[in-house]
């Protein structure tokens, strides 16, 4: 579809200047600001852009975290499982993690994104290494998104290395805050996965051996500067997440939208909660019982927004395939087995062009 040029990005706002500077940087491709203008019909619906809803199921997981009583735990697992089947998304509250942990991570991330571009570029990734700093990532082949990211593998040494590249003097606080955050997310990820498996009636420890602190879980800190024309572009365009599950913290500004029965629903920000969604691999393991659902991030014209997305992923050699107990003559395996490394690579190269990369691994009837 050709890019319409009727709606253009004004070039005189601070945010536009920021991206213009980024795009003129000699290390990157030269791009026109109109690369952010999405074709008509693919843009966000402005009417729903600023509205938030509390419809996404909210689950108090405190009882399961204390895990003394099996009956109480099973009740939480059943609620989580229902939400994962019906929505693919749910909010968790009373998870027991200190609120201070998220604000420390956010504070350090804000300091990072406030740096001059040349300083941030010291942590830039490359075509062979997706980790590090990036801005205005290409989506759907040629369109750009209005966001900057700091993407990291969740391993203290690697986070420390990234922080040291950018600001050796302050790196200690940054890497400690981000390492504390990712360590806590790794633990929470496993607890949620166990509850999700229990809710399917399979051994809750069935997949535990595929996860480790040195595995391939990653975290992406998304920063969305104010945008002069938020109705023609995205912070992040519609996508599903590739891994097992994602645990998202969003600040008070809001912009996450979830697709539900073909409609986009804005997720109300709420302090001390996390939004959890099912990724493609868990959809496969559950043989399509759990849903990996499309979501997207909108931007707005007045306030910068930040979100921290933790992607809970298995180790690279893990073979992902429908769990045997969830298949039967009536419900045969929907997907062929593949390794997580294989899918990560496939999704990395194809998700910018197709929405449902996972369909490539479907068993052909
Ligand atoms: O910023 C958001 O709310 C969404 C983030 C997201 O979907 C992602 O990082 O994959």
Automatic annotation (TrEMBL):
Gene3D superfamilies: B-lactam Antibiotic, Isopenicillin N Synthase, Chain. SUPFAM superfamilies: Clavaminate synthase-like. It comes from the Eukaryota. The keyword Iron applies. One of its GO terms (molecular function) is metal ion binding. Keywords: Dioxygenase, Iron, Metal-binding, Oxidoreductase. Residues 215-314 form the Fe2OG dioxygenase domain. It holds the Pfam family 2OG-FeII_Oxy. PANTHER family: 2-OXOGLUTARATE (2OG) AND FE(II)-DEPENDENT OXYGENASE SUPERFAMILY PROTEIN-RELATED. Belongs to the iron/ascorbate-dependent oxidoreductase family. This is 2-oxoacid dioxygenase.
